[in-house]
Task: structure prediction
Amino acid sequence: MSSGNNKVTVATTWLDGCSGCHMSFLDMDERLVDLAAQIDIVYSPFVDAKTLPEQVDLGILEGSVSSDEDLHKAREFRARCKVLLSLGDCAVNGNVPAMRNPFKLDAVIERAYRENVDLNPQIPTEGVPRLLATVRPVHGVVDVDIFVPGCPPQADAIHYVLTELIAGRTPDPSQVTRFGA
Ligand code: SF4
Result:
């Protein structure tokens, strides 16, 4: 699936997640060495590059869409990545972040920043993205091509999906994944 020069370009980021899905990616351990010969990570918490290129072969999103910043990132990834992959249950179905959905956003903020805080309770307003009223999975805001559930997905499953994509095949993650841990 590469776009001309031999390596498949890959971008990853986290939205509203715990970074555990990215940790699971790193759990591929020594297989990362082989992968490094085939993929070029052009934007990610894993690397220094902090500008998403205009065109990327594969985009990987961890986490749900909970803020306006998450929404912007998801749309940007969709616009620039040929193939977009939802990594982990938070991205696939909202998972833990979506547990706030039955409650009104004001009540959630009040609970988190005032009621449960003993020392200097205050609601942050500067330097934090605006929360959306409802948390949504990534495919709730943009089209997603591949879903890899799990909390987090096992490193073996991530490896399977990546190697299939690199080989130009369409992976079937349902064979190697399940929801939850
Ligand atoms: S799916 Fe699980 S491991 Fe991944 S970001 Fe969500 S809570 Fe963390």
Summary: Residues 94 and 137 are 5 Å apart (CA to CA). DSSP finds six helices and seven strands in the chain. The chain has a mean pLDDT of 94. The chain has one domain: 8-98+135-175.
